[in-house]
Amino acid sequence: MVRVSTIEWSADTGPVDERIGEPPTLRFPDGFEYTESWKRAQTESDQGGPINDAERMVYLEESSKPHRVVFVLDGARLRADCGCAGYHHRQWCAHVASLWWQWVRGRIQVTHRQTGREHEMPPCWLRFGDERHDVREDHLDGLTSAELDAYLTCDLGETGVREYARKTSRAPGTVGNLLSRARQKVEDGVAVTDGGHR
Ligand SMILES: [Zn+2]
């Protein structure tokens, strides 16, 4: 399993609920398209770059300094956090908005924390707000990275098993087995089933 070892909160091995300061799930505020942050995201270039698999520096043209931003896929969600005042107060800012803008245009890659997969565009299974999949994130914790990737792509993302098997160079039967194990674990909510890694 590929782990993002450089991010601070992944070093905490305690239960998720007990972690303090875990980066929030990205949400788009109502009317975000009309916010100044969204306008800046579209008009100002970013001179920043990746720090590690989970964080980037964002340095917008009109900013006086760069901002360190968490931007990483985790389970079935996208986590985003920024140290600026705007994000602290509104959970939305030009720096996070810029990364989303860049990502949907294929300009940056975003890593999935558990599977290690680099996504050049938002994956088909990613949903926000009321559209989010009704799946318990803690139930996803028990899946191996291969099971999780298959479950996200085929079940949540509604990609055909054969298409996914072809893209990942595997036999459809292998993917079918991964999926049935994943579904069982998600249903049962078995947290530790991958050899005790978590
Ligand atoms: Zn910010």
TrEMBL record:
Superkingdom to which the source organism belongs: Archaea
UniProt keywords (A-Z) are: Metal-binding, Zinc, Zinc-finger
The Gene Ontology terms for molecular function here are: zinc ion binding
Decide whether keyword Metal-binding is in the record.
Answer: yes
**What positions does the domain SWIM-type occupy?**
67-104
Start and end residues of each stretch annotated as Disordered: 1-22
**By its UniProt entry, which InterPro entries does this protein fall under?**
Znf_SWIM (IPR007527)
Quote the protein name from its UniProt record: SWIM-type domain-containing protein
**What species is given as this protein's source?**
Halovenus aranensis
Print the organism lineage.
Archaea, Methanobacteriati, Methanobacteriota, Stenosarchaea group, Halobacteria
